[in-house]
Amino acid sequence: MTMRSKVQGPLEKLIFASRWLQAPLYVGLIAAQAVYVYRFLVELAHLVTSVNSLSENEVMLMVLGLIDVVMIANLMIMVVIGGYETFVSRLNLQGHPDQPDWLEHVTAGTIKVKVATALIGISSIHLLKTFINAPQMEDRTMQWQVIIHVTFLISALALAYTDRMVIKTAQESGSAH
Description:
- The protein has 5 helices and no strands.
- The chain is an all-alpha fold.
- The protein has one domain (about 20-170).
- Helix 2 (about 25-50) packs antiparallel against helix 3 (about 55-90).
- The longest helix has about 40 residues, at about 140-175.
- It is elongated and about 80 Å long.
- It starts with a helix and ends with a helix.
- The mean pLDDT is about 85.
């Protein structure tokens, strides 16, 4: 056994095992999601107890806030489940009745596209809230929100296109062999 193989084998095992360092990060996101659940319940309680004293616009803004919390929680679930499955370890959910369909085809590229799409949805909610509140908003603030939203749209399209090209290239190279 050469000196190189004596070092290379354990080094490769260490590098491969290092993926488990991400597991606490996913647990942290789960804890953060619990905070969002609490925040959702507080906002929902405020909406229910104040409904008679709120205007239609105020109710709409509060409901949009609740939708925003749900969309962020969905984003967190995609990152936790998809990231863990892609980068740490398989979840072994075959045949589980609650397994999300998208999990069967999860790759780093599909996670990026799903995250980008979720960010567009979240950005859309924020933009809608801004437009509902337009009389109280500064033009510059609204302008920057639109610019950021358009940037998210362009980024998502670029990611989706790139992912599609990678899949197409992989399929072509697979059929060529």
